[in-house]
Predict the structure.
Amino acid sequence: MSEILDQARTQVLGDGVGLDQAGILAVLSLPDEHLPAALQLAHDVRMRWCGPEVEVEGIVSLKTGGCPEDCHFCSQSGLFTSPVRSVWLDIPSLVEAAKQTAATGATEFCIVAAVRGPDARLMKQMREGVAAIKAAVDIQVAASLGMLSKEQVDDLVDMGVHRYNHNLETCKSYFPNVVTTHSWEERWETLRMVRDSGMEVCCGGILGLGETVEQRAEFAAQLAELNPHEVPLNFLNPRPGTPLGDRPVVEGKDALRAIAAFRLAMPRTILRYAGGREITLGDLGTRDGLLGGINAVIVGNYLTTLGRPATADLELLDELKMPVKALSATL
Amino acid sequence: MTTTELWCDRCGESATATAHPACASARQLEPPRFCPRCRRRMKVQVLPVGWAAVCVEHGEIQG
């Protein structure tokens, strides 16, 4: 076994202390022949510090498209020639989406809006929507509405939103290459307010934006410093009409190396498979990731693209003898 | 493709002039974006299970 994996076995598996940036980079740089050992160690870490349960979540877009920001990976920016048009989801449809999600056994339902930050109309829609969901469906509600003011953070807590997603997307040094309409620090400030409010922090990003391996390690180390409750790990699905629309997808082994490295950086976090895994890893890679540090999945469709059928993921979890986390375990 | 599908529902280009194998492949993990009958961009709502796409001229389709 490599030196870094020996170190991780003692430090991360034994003591529950994540690797630092240099250690993460060493894992990301492992040759292919060490990848199975890295994944096995990441799996052992996940099982020791998180347990066998897998948290299942569904997501839905409450407000699609027409976003004023220029996140270069996103088909919902109004600044690019993407074919995605602006559309709002009405509350009965939102509740139906929550019911569909709960029917899969999911405990989490995340409401997402393509905005810089919520305005009064969106906050009103959220208040009515969250109340309607809570009255009709037994599921935890999370939200992802961009950058927040302190008052909006407090409003979401008051609504009963238990977790807030706000991705840093990539490391601080590469962020200006991906987004120019707001800063990494502005995102960090929202995350700080969310943390202080008592809501759970969900913060991850996208791999394959053109960052170097060193910057990928920097990103994992910055996430570890934030210490979020959950880290959604996306792989770029290049969208037509966006500045990153012609980028290649992340190579499967690099994606798996990243999964192992992120787990060894954050032994206790919920590390969630999010968008892009279908094209980056396919069915076989999805299994490898679940046996390599992943302990949560988004099931069903994403915001503007489609995912694997929920039944395919649930059957895989059953085959791997990984129980779906029960709602009672999240309360 | 049927006789009413004149336009590729992914890229919006002619569906009769050339084949669109890359679009057909991508569409396995994407909803349609263009009306195949008139090429208008559709309003598309993706849901956890399925999607709905509305053309102002030709109405809603679901998948």
About this structure: Chain A touches chain B through 31 residues (CB under 8 Å). Chain A has a mean pLDDT of 96.
